[in-house]
Each structure stands twice: as C-alpha cells, then as structure tokens.
Design a protein that fits this description.
- The strands form 2 sheets. This protein has an 8-stranded parallel sheet. Strands 3-4 form a two-stranded antiparallel ribbon.
- It has 12 helices and 10 strands.
- The relative contact order is 0.15.
- Helix 5 packs parallel to helix 7.
- By secondary structure, it is of the alpha/beta class.
C-alpha cells in the first residue's frame, strides 16, 4: 500500500494571498500563485510519491473562510477514492461550529476536524474550543491541530503542547488529537504527552524527512513509533520532496509501514 498524507490542502486564492504566508513563501522560494493547486495537480503530486490518500483540510480564521467545507467537499467529489477531508469551523460561534461538524463530519468522507490555533491567536484550552472537542468525540473522529513554532508571522505560543494541549486532554480523555508540524522546539514535551495520553499523535507535515530534528527522529523510532504519521503541508511541500530521503532514517519494515500509512489508517479509521 502507498502512503497516506494526513496534512494537505488545495489552497484557494483568498488563502494564498494572506500576508502571514510571506515567510513560508520566502523559505520555499515560491510565489502566492504557486500555492493554487487543482485536484488534478494534487493527484499528480501524490502519484509521483506513491501516496494513495491525502487528507485535505478546510481552513477558517477570524477573517472568515479561507477554504470552505463546501469547497473541500467538491474536491473530494472529484477524486473520492484518493481524497478525504477535515472540516474547519468558526471558533467565534461555537454552536454554529458544532452544527457544522454534525453536517459534514461523517467519518467516511470527512474524517476529522482541524483548527489552527495560531490563526486565531487562541491556545487550545480556550473555552471556545470546548464544544468542538465534544462534537469530535460524539462523531468519533480526531481533532487535528498544529503544535510547535509558527512559520507565519504570528505567535508560536499557541503551539506549545504544555500546558495548553495537556489541559485539553486532561479535560477530554476520550478526545483523539493529532498535532501537526512536529512540535519543534518543544520535542521533549512530546514524550510527556505520549506517555500520559494514549490518544495523542503527531504528524511530520511541513518537514522534508531528512530535515526532521534528530530528537524527533529518536522519538518517532522509539516511544512515538505508533503515534507518528506522515504529512506534507501540500502545496507548501510536495510528497516527493518530503519523502525523497526517507531511506536515510533506516526504518525497519514495520516502522516504515506504521509511519507511512498504518498509524493514519488506525487513527482516522480509513478503510
């Protein structure tokens, strides 16, 4: 079986033109026009790296929808065997957010919910998230978020696992959480979260495999071997770019399978 990419998006023009993307465009030597993939170009990038399924995300922030749930649904419709979705919601309207989750998230096409804390400037233990966590538990899907430093020109404090995400998981022990973007520079906090919470997981999105911090590689090949999943942050990084030096990690067959697809299939209940 091919890989599963747990963090991707088919970016809209209104998202690609956000000013906070400037540092990422500079680092990846891209322009905003480069961040406008189609379903077809996304599938071609997946095929080039033997990625079977990409989980594409909606985005919603304080200024409104950047990629709507309706747009993600249309993208899934164009490639239903290759794409799954993550819904996003308006944190400022918690009950509307719950209704939106109930509308879209069926565990089959939409397999989770993503809210990016730095976009809102709200740490995950803010009261406005709490109805969303309950809705995720009711829907039996993961809550996906971002951990670690923030590449865009916004605060990184919202991505620190301790104490913010820890408080959430203490309050919601049933909640399954997937923290994207590795968690650097707080790699040591991943170990605490992993030992303490069996429902805590991490993905490697926004990193080419050969650029993963050494401490994270030690984590993913040790206590995190059943918790770490492959992700890209497409179209910022392509699957091929992320995986081109995978062999340098010297993963055994079981760990390689778990990282590339097995953990994601289990956590997102992919058939």
């Amino acid at each position: 079986m091919g890989a599963i990419d747990v963090w991707a998006q088919i970016t809209t023009k209104r998202m690609a033109e956000q000013p906070w993307l400037a540092p990422l465009l500079r680092w990846t030597e891209q322009r905003s026009d480069d961040l406008l993939p189609t379903v077809s170009s996304t599938l071609a990038a997946m095929d080039a790296a033997n990625v079977d399924v990409s989980i594409i995300s909606a985005w919603h922030g304080p200024t409104g929808s950047l990629i709507s749930n309706d747009e993600v649904a249309e993208q899934i419709d164009a490639a239903p065997d290759r794409l799954r979705g993550l819904a996003s919601v308006d944190l400022s309207r918690p009950m509307d957010a719950v209704r939106e989750i109930r509308r879209w998230v069926d565990g089959k096409r939409f397999v989770g919910v993503r809210v990016v804390p730095w976009l809102w400037g709200l740490t995950p233990d803010d009261r406005r998230y709490y109805p969303i966590y309950a809705a995720c538990i009711d829907a039996n899907v993961p809550f996906c978020t971002q951990i670690g430093h923030t590449g865009p020109l916004l605060t990184s404090e919202t991505g620190r696992p301790l104490p913010y995400l820890e408080r959430v998981m203490l309050d919601f022990p049933e909640l399954v959480v997937v923290g994207g973007h590795v968690g650097f520079p707080w790699i040591d906090e991943l170990l605490t979260m992993t030992i303490k919470f069996p429902n805590f997981h991490v993905d490697t999105s926004a990193y080419a495999i050969h650029r993963l911090p050494n401490a994270f590689v030690d984590y993913m090949t040790g206590p995190g071997k059943s918790r770490v999943m492959f992700g890209t942050n497409w179209p910022m990084l392509s699957p091929q770019r992320c995986l081109e030096k995978l062999d340098q990690l010297n993963l055994d067959d079981d760990l390689r399978e778990a990282f590339l697809s097995g953990n994601a299939k289990r956590v997102f209940n992919l058939q």
